[in-house]
Amino acid sequence: MTIAKTSDAGPPQVARAPSGGSDPRERRSVGAIRLALFDLDHTLIPLDSDHAWGQFTVTLGWRDAETHTRANDAFYEQYKAGTLDINEYIRFSVAPLADHGPQKAEAAHRRFMDEVIRPAMRPQALDLVRRHQAAGDQVIIVTATNEFITRPIAQAFGVDELIAIDLERDEAGNPTGAIRGVPSFREGKVARVEQWLLARGLDWSGVAHSTFYSDSINDLPLLEKVHEPVAANPDDRLKAIAAERGWRILNLFT
Which residue of the set 8, 23, 41, 73 is catalytic? Predict the structure, then answer.
């Protein structure tokens, strides 16, 4: 399949696709599911919600500014380089949640949504999601950020299905610092989508068409798995791969 490259902030344009034309509403396949998968950070929103949440906890006085910022920035650089230890990062990132309890954490997240996330949401990203929904595609956000941070963001986009890092919790509902199940990170995103399909009595053979939008080289395994990979606001390494392979390159925020 040959993907036509463009920078327009619209749905994928497919030059030769057995299921139809460029508009997702034209891709109809009776009796089979169509998936529109989206990474979240720097794909649907022009920031990293995990990193931003960490900095937000500093403004709340939950963490020492200098110590946290230095560690948070170091983890973020590891993520961009593709060298992040996801288990180590989760232990670091969820520690304030356990310290302050579920009620304070949820109240803080509501402020985070109002002060950080909603102002960063762009109409062109919302429109892209809605166009896939209007086409009848099953929209799923597939992110390596944990479910505490991302569930309200998915809801703000009108997306019910979220695949995120699930946090292990104690009896009081506080995160223990461990990950529950397979982390949705790198190859784990493929595994988690397969689990989602299996829970519905499906596998990849039952998917008529699949699109995945991502900005990150970390998502190469899932980009290579779907019918239609889209490099959305890509980092330099992913942009080079997309150009070499003829994948569509989409710039939502410029």
Answer: 41
